[in-house]
Amino acid sequence: MGLKLAQEEHTKVLGVVMALVCMTISGVLLWLAQRDIPLGTSYAVWTGMGAAGTFFVGVWFYGDPANIGRYLGVALIVAGVVTLKLAHE
What is the pTM of this model? Predict the structure, then answer.
């Protein structure tokens, strides 16, 4: 959301700050995950959940297009993430 807000002149500073805070939190969470999960699995989970989350933020807050095919694609990403995590244990 932060980078989207940074696109507008009146919310540029807020958007950049939000983006930096969110990226920092995200990086720390990835670092923490790599303590217990192999690198490939943790990175795949991190990027997959980021992609799915970004899709939902776009649909809910910015009016991005949503149809059955796009929801199915996100469901497949989430299913892949769950499968990777379960296969690790």
Answer: 0.75
